[in-house]
Amino acid sequence: MTLALPGPRLLLAFTSALLPLAALAASPAPEQAPTIPAEVYAPIAMEAGTWDAEITFYEKDKPSGTATGVQVNTLLLNGHWITNDFTIPANGKFPAYQGHGVWGYDPVAKTYVDTWVDTNDGAVRTDYGYWQPDEKIMTWSSKQNDGKGHFVDYRIVEEFKGDTRIFTFTQLGIVTPNPHPLVRIVFTRRAEDKAAG
User: Fold this and answer.
1) Rounded Cα gap, residues 25 and 21, in angstroms
2) What are the boundaries of each domain within the chain?
3) For residues 153 and 190, what is the distance between their CA atoms, to the nearest angstrom?
4) Of 86, 108, 106, 107, nearest to 98 (Cα)?
5) Span of the secretion signal (predicted)?
6) How far apart are CA 147 and CA 60, in angstroms?
7) DSSP letter string, the chain
8) Cβ–Cβ < 8 Å for 49, 73
9) Distance CA 126, CA 114 (A)
10) Nearest residue to 87 (alpha-carbon basis) of 66, 71, 74
11) For the whole model, what pTM was predicted?
12) Residues 6+ positions from 98 with CB-CB distance below 8 Å
C-alpha cells in the first residue's frame, strides 16, 4: 500500500489553519477583571426610580426662585451604571430645562464618575465622587470652563434619606474657595417606585 503525501496546496492550508491556534497558545492569559465589592454599587441602586423634584435656585447666596421637575433614573442590567434624565418645565421666570447624565463606579479610575450634559451647559461636565457609606452621602467634585476663560470648581453633595434625596450644587469662589449655593433640590421618590430603594 502506497502512502500518499498531501500536496503543497493542502499542506499550506493545514499549516495556515494551525497558525492562529499556535499564536493563541503563545499569548499571555488575559488579566482577570478586578473584583469590585457589591457594596460599591449600593449608592447607584439607591438612586433608581422616578423622583419628583422641589427646586430652589440661588443668586448671590440667596434664594432667587423655585421650580418643580421630574428625574427618571434607570439602572443598567448589571446594576453598575445608572442613567439620569431630568426635566423642569418652563415657568414664568425660567425656560424649560433638560439634563442627561450617566454615572457609576469606574474600575479603572477607582472612583465614581458622572458625566452630565444639559440645556444650560456649553460643555460636558465630568464629576468625580466620594461615597460615605455610614452617612449615605455622595460628594462630587468637578471643574468646568465658564466660557470666559476661567475654570470654575463645583461641589455637589447628595444626601440619601430613603425615599428622599437632598441635592446641593455649589460653586467654589475663584479667588477664595468659599462655597456659593447655586441650586438645592429635594427629590421625593414616587410611591410606585419605593420598592426600588
Assistant:
1) 6
2) 48-196
3) 32
4) 86
5) 1-25
6) 20
7) -PPPPPPHHHHHHHHHHHHHHHHHHHSPPPPPPPPPPGGGGHHHHHT-EEEEEEEEEEETTEEEEEEEEEEEEEE-TTSSEEEEEEEE---SSS--EEEEEEEEEETTTTEEEEEEEESS-SS-EEEEEEEETTTTEEEEEEEEE-SSS-EEEEEEEEEEETTEEEEEEEEE-SSS--EEEEEEEEEEE-GGGGGG-
8) yes
9) 6
10) 71
11) 0.79
12) 85, 86, 87, 88, 118, 119
The cell numbers describing 58, all together, are 440661588
Query: What fold, for 48-196?
Result: Lipocalin (2.40.128)
pLDDT tens per residue across span 12-55: 454 555 555 555 555 555 666 668 999 999 999 999 999 999 99
